[in-house]
Amino acid sequence: MKFSNLLDSLKQTGSRLVERGSFSSGSEPAETKTCDPDPFAGGITIHGRMLPSPMFFAVGNICNANCVFCGYQYNVDKKGMMSFDTFQKGFDQYLEMGGDWIDFTTESGDPLVDVGLRRKLTYARECGIKKISLATNGILLSYKDQYKALIDNEVDWIVISTPGFDRDAYKRIYRVNKYDEVLEGITQLADYKQSRGAKSDIAISMRLDRPVEAALCEPDYVSRIKPLVDQGAIRVELSDCIESVHNWSGQILEEDLPKGMSLIQELPEKIAGHTCSNIQHSGAVMANGDVRVCNCRYYKTERDELVVGNIHNAPLKDILYSQELADLIDRTTRGDWPRTCVDCSFYQASPTCRVPPN
Ligand code: SF4
Ligand code: SF4
User: Fold this and answer.
1) How confident is the model at residue 300 (pLDDT cuts 50, 70, 90)?
2) Pocket test for ligand 2, best of 280, 292, 341, 348 (most atoms within 8 A of CB)
3) pLDDT in the model for residue 272
4) How far apart are CA 210 and CA 137, in angstroms?
């Protein structure tokens, strides 16, 4: 499950942290900067990396949808879910480092497929994490009352990705016959939130093959979803209701998409002296304990050059600020990109920041 535009807004929080440190994002000249070498000072650590916020815990790589616009259909990895022990190990270390925000969104799969998600949510809350978020296709919200686990554990931000509220569109774009489950799940989630007086922000994003204005006039939206929006139980994130989708490192082609949906036309140009903001600032613990710097895109496999360690072999802190990761930042800054990044339309230039050698 991906939520590109919404993730951008999440990352603005990260940008503000950057501004507090000794380098800034945005219109800096294309050169490597010198950073405060004091680990964790102002959120900036060695190799110019902040502690990722959010830190992703991608709890599995299994999806119950088959979206036409998603690289999941080409994923060749062995499938599995994150054990509680793996989660606990990574989470405890993140919290100990001062981490404040975890996100259970997976880049290949849906977090609600994880039958152990409820236990992980409860543990994280009991340990005092400040913020929790996730994105889901919503198919399993009602399964074993998972919607209650999200509200009871005060998930701050829940994004539900849909192709709008039309049965045929669901089959056409998400390519599974699960429309009724999604509609029921969203209704139960919203009603339960209201009944508990919970503050969880529930946002609907849409991947559309028709204009959003048309999707918002469809009968099920008007009769089932709009009343929940009007009550303030959920909202539609219009900035993430899109007809143009990413290319998944060149895997998704224009001809794969239904009429009315298209690829983002222009590949962002890689800027000399810049890495990608995901490499510089992001981080994800994968189901098997791998730590990958991008939780947004992959080319066929997530076990690629963006994996910089495994929490079963080294402490998370050592991995997030390892020489291996510094080397990845350096090589991408020089224009030597892993295959996943080469044709990635999700690239966002980030000035590279390094500490001087001692
Ligand atoms: S629900 Fe998410 S992970 Fe699953 S196929 Fe669709 S976009 Fe991909
Ligand atoms: S270029 Fe794309 S795949 Fe590479 S780190 Fe950035 S977002 Fe991820």
Assistant:
1) very high
2) 341
3) 87
4) 19
Which residue reads 């997530």 in tokens? 302
Task: Let me know: does 293 contact 325? Beta carbons within 8 Å.
Answer: yes
Whole-prediction pTM value? 0.88
**Amino acid symbol at 351:** P
Task: Using the atom order of ligand 2, give the atom closest to the CA of residue 276.
Answer: 6
Q: Which ligand is nearest to the CA of 282?
A: 2
Average pLDDT across the chain, whole number: 87
Residues with CB under 6 A from ligand 1: 1-2, 63, 65-67, 70, 72, 108-110, 137
Ligand 2 pocket at CB < 6 A: 276, 278-279, 294, 296-297, 340-341, 344, 346-347
pLDDT, tens digit, 9 for 90 and up, residues 272-281 = 889 999 998 8
Rounded (to 5) percent helix, strand, coil in the chain: 35, 20, 45
Can you list the pairs that 309-315 forms with residues at least 24 positions away whose Cβ atoms lie under 8 Å?
Answer: 311/86, 311/89, 311/90, 311/93, 311/285, 312/86, 312/89, 313/289, 315/93
For atom 3 of ligand 2, which residue has the closest CA? 341
Q: Which of 144, 145, 146, 224 is nearest to 179 (CA)?
A: 224
Is residue 296's pLDDT more than 60? Answer: yes
**Chain segment 191-239, per-residue pLDDT in tens:** 999 999 999 999 999 999 999 999 999 999 999 999 999 999 999 999 9
Cα(226) to ligand 1 centroid in Å equals: 24
